[in-house]
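Sequence decides. Our protein:
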Amino acid sequence: MKVLQISDMHLGASLTGFPSTYKTRIRTNATEIINKIPMFMREHEIDGLIIPGDLFDNEKNAHRWIFLINKMFEQILSDSKFVVYASGNHDYWIGRNHFRGLGDYDKFVLFDSANPESSLFTHKGVQICAHGVGYEVRQPYEPIIGKMGLAVENCINLGVVHGVVSGKLPEGKAPYYPMSIRQIESLNYDYTALGHIHESMQVSDACAYSGCLTPSRLQDTGLKGGLVIDIGPGGVGIEQVPLGAVALYEIIVPVKASSFEEYMLRVYAIEEQQLLSDVMYHVIFEGDIGFIWESAYEALIMQSLEQYFGYPVLCKFNHRQRKNLQAFELPTEFTELCEKSYERVIEEIAHDRLNVNFLSSKESMIEKLTDSKESLLASLYELWKKGDGDET
């Protein structure tokens, strides 16, 4: 028997930190994958779909995605295949009322309760017992695996849990539903599908995280996709499949500059790298700098770089030295151009149209931009001169 495992799509996520072009690309890619999965399962003779949580990111933005997922589930179930879905900490609000049209399918299993359950059904003459647990609150830290039912004899037993295995917790992830490898193995399931960690990871011979199917955070780098699980008499085979998921890669650019000119030369040097057009990039400039660097100036430079390159930019600098830039006479044409640009930036921030992921609030962004306006204009003038006065 073969099953497809996907998780952590976080459909409806705000995609904080991504520029608008990337947000559109990720959401379009997610739609394409949802539409593709039923055909992929037919072509590869896959018997069922397993989803261990966080299919959706939040209830507020989920309406459109719930419609698409219902359509995908119905196509899979209409092919006499099965779907097993356990809710996670982001889609803890999901319930059977969101899938009313699937009530007639006996091979649709939804674990939306914090009390572990088991569901028995027949597929191609084979008895399958799905064991799972869902979420009812956002942050459950108590161990739950010990309450799950043991494997049923003469069945293929599948476990579905959104939680964390001891020793496998990445930085920044909360330890919801903690469990150990020994606890999982003691249940004697043929295979256990895990969610919550966004990296593909095989925990044991018969247990794995598929990782997130599409990136929802800037940390979600590397190849993404699902897992095809082949359960047979000789054991379990686990294969990662991309499913057409777009990949996000991180580029670290070390910067040690004593002047604005040195910094900008280093920044634009990344253009010389052979960057692929069919993947996304997150560029991080980090290091020591010795010229003036105010938070508002940093914010504006980052925003300019994001617009220039078309992908997210992050600056991580050690501010060892701060200097006051003396005011000097600027050309009228440049001053007028900057005044227009400056006013537009303020307006964009005020109307939440500018991606300001690097400051705590738009109010502080506007305040800091206003306080450091002269130094902003002076420094940007140096960049403007390099472009021969081009408005870009």
